Amino acid sequence: MADETSTTTSDQTTEATTATTDAAATGATEAAASTETKTEDLGTTALGDAGEVAAETKEAGEGEGAKAEAVPETYELAAPEGFEKLDEETVAAATPVFKELGLTNEQANKLVPVAGEFAKKIIAERDQQFIGQIMEQRKSWLEEAKADKEIGGANWDASLADAGRALDRLGFPKGSPLRVSLDESGYGNNPELVRLLARAGKAIGEDTDFVRGDAAAAVKPKDDRELFYGSQKREG
What we know:
- The protein is an all-alpha fold.
- Among the domains are: 54-125, no CATH class; 148-209, no CATH class.
- The chain contains eight helices and no strands.
- The chain has helices spanning 2-42, 50-70, 88-100, 105-147, 156-169, 177-185, 191-206, 224-229.
- Helix 5 (156-169) crosses helix 7 (191-206).
- The longest helix has 43 residues, at 105-147.
């Protein structure tokens, strides 16, 4: 009977010890888990993350180095369609911008056609504006010339005839480069130029001794006596 009691007591003691050990293990596990959770909540420290930060910094540095190597010192740019070539000043002005953007030579060349189209539009708009200014100036000059008291009004047709005579006699007929230039620039309506040529043409019409340049060969040259005394007859 005593042996049975002793065995029972020993078994109970073993069970109690085992229970205590399990409880301790469970408590340690829960404590470790709790500590890990709290550590994660706190985040990493500078030294704890130093290895990863260094690795990231190294990778970033290598990436920047590779990028810097891809950016050329000077760009070789092809002229876009519609342009014969890119002048050195244009390339020099664009180079700092391309470098700041970190563009490779290939990437820069992809932008050139876009810039070319933009430049064409600017030039076209500027030309249209310039033509519009010329047309407006031509109209203004014509109105001013026709209203001028000396060359305009009832004298307009005669003024144009005299101006035309001056141009013809001076060797600038219709279709000559000078006349074309007067039309294209609008100066053919400039009242002061019309006045000048009208006066010259009128003077030419009144001067019978005036000879056109292309007709000079047909005129009989004067002898020494005529050059010295003139064309007047001497008495005796």
